[in-house]
Amino acid sequence: MRYRPISPEVLTAELTDRIAALAHNRRIAVAVDGADPASATGDLADALAAPLRVRGREALRVSARDFLRPASLRFEHGKQSPDARYTDWLDLGGLRREVLDPLREKGTGEILPALWDSDRDRATRLPRVPVPDGGVVLLDGEFLQGAGLAFDFVVHLWLSPAALRRRTPEDQAWALPAYERYEAEVDPSALADVVVRVEDPRHPAVYEP
To answer: Which domain of life is it from (predicted)?
Structure first.
């Protein structure tokens, strides 16, 4: 695989160019996918919001962490089950219903920015937010590909197995088999529009086929 070294600033600019060039007359869903928290998907999604607004594309931030299932379902097989984290933690139905479906051509255009407060283990009860025509929803999270979620553009943040082990906090190391399973079963790099190697987030590199 060939990667082109790039600065974080230039990476943000290049991604902004590509996203801003997508159809201006419709609402768009962009995913920043990667192992959480090792790949810092939220940081990149945050960085894209302001420059997209400068380009005239209203940008709204959503995190998959706010669309987790209730603790009774997530932890049915224990709090440190990698298989459950891979298949049972994310509320795919809620994400489709509250964020992605409203962006479609015949959707309402109003999204729910957060569905579930996993710290308090209760619904957030937030009001819906209108997404204007041409608006961009930036969604960050893990395991976002291969589950039938309808994104218009996907950035996958990739780490080598060694870097993933090194950058994963010790208290999250139990989840490593989930990331290995995702890599083996989904091959997220093959599905994404852009793949960025983030062994060191200060020195990313973009995959060039």
So the answer is: Bacteria
- How far apart CA 121 and CA 131 sit, in angstroms, is 27
Taken as a whole, the chain contains a residue count of 209
User: Dihedral of CA 141/66/105/23: which sign?
Assistant: negative
pLDDT value, residue 1: 67
CA pair distance 109, 101, nearest whole angstrom: 9
47-97 tens-digit pLDDT: 999 999 999 999 999 999 999 999 999 999 999 999 999 999 999 999 999
Residue 123 CA from chain centroid, whole number:
21
Tokens representing 163 are 């870097």
133: amino acid identity, one letter = D
SS3 85: helix
H or E element, residue 116: strand 116-117
Domains in the chain with CATH codes: 3-207 (3.40.50.300)
Other C-beta atoms closer than 10 Å to the C-beta of 208 total: 9
Mapped onto helix, strand or coil, the DSSP state of residue 59 is strand
| pLDDT tens digits, one per residue of 21-48 | 998 889 999 999 999 888 899 999 999 9
